[in-house]
Design goal:
Length: 125
């Protein structure tokens, strides 16, 4: 089995040439895209909020079920504590998800409100 180099001359191009080629490639890639400061995507996207809600809900259920399973094993109360703590974990996850959604809605409403307006959207005197 033999390996061939990518260049035909048998030796790789010098590293200082690599820097120039990298800068040129980045310039072509970013031509006309994301010229302003900051990230290309907004920091608060719908997918971000959705993943957060799903993770918080799942984590609450998993933690409750795990703690309940362990307590059931230690106390000999199978399966009652696992069921009870699973439901409590699910309720805590739903409450956390609800709060996150309400916070996101409040932030979105504040961003949509014109500058200089009050809470009800009317202009301040």
């Amino acid at each position: 089995m033999s390996f061939e180099l990518m260049t035909e001359g048998g030796s790789p191009p010098p590293l200082n040439d690599f820097d120039a080629r990298l800068k040129a490639a980045r310039g072509r890639q970013n031509d006309g895209k994301n010229d302003g400061p900051g990230p290309a995507l907004p920091s608060s996207t719908g997918a971000n909020a959705g993943y957060r809600v799903a993770v918080e809900l799942f984590a609450g259920m998993l933690f409750g079920a795990g703690l309940g399973w362990w307590l059931d094993r230690e106390l000999g109360t199978k399966p009652w504590l696992m069921v009870l703590l699973f439901l409590l974990g699910a309720a805590a996850g739903l409450l956390s998800a609800y709060r996150a959604v309400m916070r996101a809605n409040r932030t979105e409403q504040e961003n949509d409100r014109p500058a200089g307006s009050g809470e009800d959207g009317r202009k301040k005197d």
